[in-house]
């Protein structure tokens, strides 16, 4: 049995579509279809229920899926051990927002590259919604997000890091000396909010009547919000750590405490690249220490 056939089987089972699986595997649809039928003949079992639009696993297919996963996992582990650390190479695309939790990820990337210098990282700055979307599309391998995600779609590693919602206030601003800010203190302030639909609605309710009219803009990357904030005098709503300073501004938490937890996520797939598999093992170990 060719290991590629196991990859075809697992990807088709994951996607529920031979056509979609073929696209992700970069092979033709007839090739995947033919290989799956050959696999069923070899095993003497029907693994898929086929309809015009999709496929689903039979009882035998569900049982074989676990066997296939174990075989590929053992093979990948053996390849990594036989290849050796110095020879492991690959390209990893990671999405991340502009949050303090990125520092942890940066430290682990640096430590990982000392062990595996042949692995090259592409760091893509995006908001959480876009990170999830791009991981699902296969444009990103994994990402760091500060929100809950669908556990049926993603594998989730909680990093044990939390940040607080609040505002960045100019150091000379009357509010800068406050330990925290209430909705009452913000009623006369212009605001720049992150592109986070759920949080935005919750925040507007907390700020009270007329709050939406005081939101001058939204941003997906906070770097782009600073020039507008300087020009307009608006305060930037973001995640941060009380007392931290950025661009001549001090972070003040909201009096109504609201935090966000950092998670490292990747798509649930039967097969990961050797480079990603190794990095996942590394970061999981770092979190557990």
From TrEMBL:
Gene3D superfamilies: 3.40.190.290, Winged helix-like DNA-binding domain superfamily/Winged helix DNA-binding domain. It comes from the Bacteria. GO terms for cellular component: protein-DNA complex. It comes from Acutalibacter muris. Residues 1-58 form the HTH lysR-type domain. Belongs to the LysR transcriptional regulatory family. PANTHER family: LYSR FAMILY TRANSCRIPTIONAL REGULATOR, TRANSCRIPTIONAL DUAL REGULATOR HCAR-RELATED. GO terms for molecular function: DNA binding; DNA-binding transcription factor activity. Keywords: DNA-binding, Transcription, Transcription regulation. This is LysR family transcriptional regulator. Pfam families: HTH_1, LysR_substrate.
């Amino acid at each position: 049995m060719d290991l590629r056939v196991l990859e075809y089987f697992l990807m088709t089972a994951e996607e529920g579509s031979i056509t979609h699986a073929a696209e992700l595997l970069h092979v033709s649809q007839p090739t995947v279809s033919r290989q799956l039928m050959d696999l069923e003949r070899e095993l003497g079992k029907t693994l898929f229920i086929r309809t015009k639009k999709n496929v689903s696993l039979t009882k035998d297919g569900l049982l074989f899926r676990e066997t296939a996963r174990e075989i590929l996992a053992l093979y990948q582990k053996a390849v990594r051990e036989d290849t050796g650390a110095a020879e492991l190479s690959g390209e990893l695309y990671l999405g991340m927002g502009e949050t303090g939790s990125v520092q942890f990820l940066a430290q682990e990337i640096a430590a990982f590259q000392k062990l595996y210098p042949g692995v090259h990282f592409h760091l893509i700055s995006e908001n959480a919604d876009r990170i999830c979307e791009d991981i699902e599309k296969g444009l990103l391998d994994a990402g760091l997000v500060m929100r809950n995600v669908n556990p049926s779609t993603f594998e989730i590693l909680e990093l044990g890091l939390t940040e607080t919602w609040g505002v960045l206030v100019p150091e000379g601003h009357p509010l800068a000396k406050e330990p925290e800010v209430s909705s009452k203190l913000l009623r006369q302030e212009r605001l720049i909010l992150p592109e986070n639909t759920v949080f935005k609605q919750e925040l507007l309710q907390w700020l009270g009547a007329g709050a939406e009219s005081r939101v001058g803009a939204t941003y997906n990357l906070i770097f782009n919000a600073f020039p507008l904030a300087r020009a307009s005098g608006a305060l930037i709503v973001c995640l941060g750590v009380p007392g931290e300073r950025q661009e001549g501004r001090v972070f003040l938490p909201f009096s109504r405490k609201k935090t966000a937890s950092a998670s490292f996520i990747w798509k649930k797939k039967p097969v990961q690249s050797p480079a990603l598999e190794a990095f996942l093992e590394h970061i999981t170990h770092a979190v557990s220490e």
